[in-house]
Design brief:
Length: 265
């Protein structure tokens, strides 16, 4: 099935009315695109039409009607991206994509399933497989029993580099609030997709240019996993940001915007 994913334009359209290349950004499990990407998007919207697409049950997207896998999520991204492309004739045109964690997994799936729709891809704080399947099954069970709010404290410890929440409490709180606002059914659906996701043996078939961005202090997807992506695809490189944890666009928006802007050209 193809879930209904809702797109949100992050930043203003170009004041001069000129068309900008479409850059679709995707969030991590438990965050909304607004909470995660707004800071970096503001620094990119003078050069790109930055559109964020929320995961099922997160932000503005409803939960899916049933179980989903990463290929379903990739199809949902394609449908939502096609709907926002400026001209109906552009609905099948390539766009750039940048996704964090689960959003990065969707990016890799897009590169495998629909490479003609992707220009360049930025995979942030992600991997060709994240964790072990049983871990996602257990987390989904916890959310079913206690709700997503039960994950707030553990996420605060796992998401951010040491000291970030003290340096930028408003951003940290917005991200954790977006977690608590997520629909439990949608959260569990994405957990199920992550439990079944493993593209490690298919990276070599990815020919589109890929930039893998990681955080030196990311305990969820450590830097080695970004290097694995960069080495595994045909045209890849990795950039690891110091003093950054698992949510690079929120923790280091200027660095992320700089790297994305230079990579996309």
């Amino acid at each position: 099935m193809t879930p209904t994913l809702v797109a949100t334009r992050l930043g203003d359209r170009a004041a001069d009315g000129a068309a900008r290349p479409l850059l679709v950004v995707g969030p991590s499990l438990g965050t909304s695109v607004r909470a995660l990407w707004t800071g970096a998007a503001r620094l990119l919207c003078d050069r790109f039409d930055v559109v964020g697409i929320d995961l099922p049950g997160h932000g503005r997207s409803p939960a899916a009607a049933g179980g989903i896998d990463m290929a379903d999520l990739a199809r949902g991204i394609l449908a939502a991206a096609g709907a926002v492309q400026a001209d109906p004739g552009d609905a099948g045109a390539p766009f750039h994509y940048a996704g964090v964690s689960a959003g990065g997994c969707i990016g890799l799936q897009l590169l495998v399933d629909a490479p003609d729709r992707i220009g360049r891809a930025v995979i942030l704080n992600s991997a060709a497989r994240i964790g072990e399947p049983q871990g996602w099954v257990d987390r989904a069970a916890l959310v079913a029993e206690q709700g997503v709010g039960a994950l707030r404290q553990a996420s605060a410890e796992r998401w951010f580099a040491p000291g970030f929440a003290d340096r930028d409490p408003a951003t940290a709180a917005a991200l954790l609030d977006s977690l608590c606002a997520a629909d439990g059914a949608g959260y569990r659906q994405v957990c199920g997709a992550l439990a079944r996701f493993d593209l490690r043996d298919r990276l070599g078939g990815i020919a589109r240019p890929v930039l893998a961005i990681g955080g030196q202090d990311d305990v969820a997807t450590p830097p080695g996993l970004q290097h694995d992506i960069a080495r595994g695809v045909r045209d890849g490189r990795a950039e690891i940001l110091p003093q950054v944890g698992h949510l690079a666009p929120a923790e280091a928006p200027r660095d992320v915007a700089r790297l994305i802007g230079a990579f996309l050209g």
